[in-house]
C-alpha cells in the first residue's frame, strides 16, 4: 500500500535527520511502533537530531504520540531532538500529546504464599460477616414487621400481591411438573428394587414419607431459591446500582419496608403453597407409576398411603416451608443490597445468593431433622 | 468506493422508523458533510436519539437508505460493516462505560481489539486520550462507579476517540457538565475537528455548544428535518418552535 508509513535516516554532517512520511495513523500503529522502536536505538553520540515530519500525509494521535516518544528518547540532557516541518494543523495535536507524562503502573499483587494465606483469612472473616449481615437483615425485617403492625396503613398490599404472583402463581407449572416427574421416578425405582424381595407395596410408604416430609419441600425450596431468590437479588442489586434505593431513603421511605418486606411475605406465603402442590403432584405421579408399572391399583395405593403416613409427616413438611422461605428471602435481599457499581458485581451476588440460599436450606433441613426426631414427630 | 470521495460522510435518504403504531421518523433525509460539526436539535421526544441509533444500526428502520463513508449499511457485508464501525466513535448519553472494567481498560478495549500493539503503547495512548479530554492519568485505575458524572462523560469520549475515528456521534455530550467544563468540551471538539479532520454529529440541547462549536444545525420535528443551516438561518426562520428555541429567553441570555 502506498500510504505505508516510513522513517528514513539522512546523515547531515554531525547530525542526523529522520524523515517521516506516509500515513502515521492508528491503522498502521503496529508498523509504526516497530519503526519507532528501531529508530530509538539510534541515540548514540550524535549531537543534532531532527525529526522531519513535512512529508507525513496523515497524522493522528497514535502517530503524533509515537513521534513525540521518538523525540523524547532521542533527547538527553545535552541535546534535544527537534521536530521540524510541522504543519499548523498538526502542531496542536503534537502539543496535545506533549503533555503526556508518566504512565501510571497497574498495581498487581504478585502471587505469593502470604497472599494465599491472606486470601484464606479474608474468606473466613467473610463468612462471619455473612452470618452477621443475615442476622442484621432478619432484625431489620422484624423491625419493619413491628412497624407495620403498629401502623397497618404503611403495609404495601399491592406490592405483596404482585410479588406473590411472580413467586407463587407463575411458579406453579414448573414446580408441579418437576415434582410430578420426581414422584414418578421415586416410585419406579422403588418398585424396581423392592420387587426383588416381593415388597412392592412398601413403595407407597417410601413415597409418602419421602415426599411429604423431605423431598417435596426441599426440592421446591431449591427451585424457589434458583427462581425467585436470584430474581430478588438481581432486582434489588440493579436498583442499588442506579441509586434507586438511595432515592427511596432520601424521600423518607424505609427500603426494608417498601422493597424487602413485601418480597419476604410473598416468598414465605408462596413456599408452603408450592410445597403442598408439589407434594400432591409427586404423590399423584408416584401413584400413577405404581399403578401402570407396578400394578398397584389406585384404591390399594390410597388405602396403603392412609396406613403408612400420619398427619405428622405432612405437618413437618409444612412447618419447614416458611422457615426455608425466610432463609432464602433474607439471603437474597442481603446479597441484593451488597451489589456494588459494576455488572460483574451484580452477577457475583446473584450467583452467591442462589448458592448460599440452597446451602442454608439444606443446613436448615438437617437442623429440622434432628429437632423433629428429638420431639418424636 | 468512488462515492467515498464525495462530500457527504453520512447520507440518510427517506428513512422511516416506527415503534408499534407510532411513526417516529417519517421519510427523513439528512446529509452530514465531511469535516463539519453538525448540531442536531429538536424538542424532547422528537426522535433525535432514535435517528442517531438508526444510523449506527441499533434501531431497525422500516424503509430508507443509510450510507456512511459511502457504504450502504444494509448492503454491506460483515467485513465492510466492521470497517465502518472502526472508523466511527460513539459517545452514548449515559456514557455506557463497561462497569466491570477500569477506565484504563475501557479506553484500551477498542484499541486492543483492532490493533496488535504493545501494552506500553496502549498505556501511552490511554494517557494521551485522557489528557485530551482533560483528565489526569491518576483516574486510570478507577472503576466507572467511582467516577463523577462529568468524568464518566469524559472517559466515554476518550473511549469513543480511542481509535482516532473520522466520525463521532455525540449524544448530548455536555449535559451534566458544569458550564466551564461544557465550554472546555466544546473547545475540545473544535480542536479535535481541526486537527484530526473529524466529522461530528452532535445531538445537543446546549445553546452554547450550538453557537460556539457547530458549523451547521439541523432541526428535527414531526419525523422530518424541518430546517438545516447556520445559526443565522435558524434565527431567521419563521417556524414557531425555532423562533422559540433560538429567540427565547435562554437564547437571548446566551447571546448576551
Notes on the structure:
The complex is a heterodimer of chains A (377) and B (256). Chain A is an alpha/beta fold. Chain A contains 12 helices and 4 strands; from the N terminus they run ββαβαβαααααααααα. In chain A, β1 and β2 (15-24) form a beta hairpin. The mean pLDDT of chain A is 87. Chain B is of the alpha/beta class. In chain B, 39% of the residues lie in helices and 25% in strands. A 6-stranded mixed beta sheet of chain B has the order 6-7-8-3-9-10. A 4-stranded antiparallel beta sheet of chain B has the order 2-1-4-5, with helices on one face. In chain B, a hairpin with a 2-residue loop joins β1 and β2 (22-33). In chain B, α3 packs across α4 (119-132) and α9 (240-247) crosses α10. In chain B, 42% of the residues are buried. Residues 1-5 of chain B have low confidence and may be disordered. Classes of the chains: A alpha/beta (377), B alpha/beta (256). The interface between A and B is medium-sized, with 33 and 35 residues.
Number of distinct beta strands of chain A: 4
Strand count, sense and closure of the main sheet of chain A? Answer: 4 strands, mixed
Give the proportion of residues in helices of chain A: 55-70%
Kindly report the oligomeric state of this protein: heterodimer
Query: β content of chain B, as a range?
Result: 15-25%
| Total strands of chain B | 10
Molecular shape of chain A:
elongated
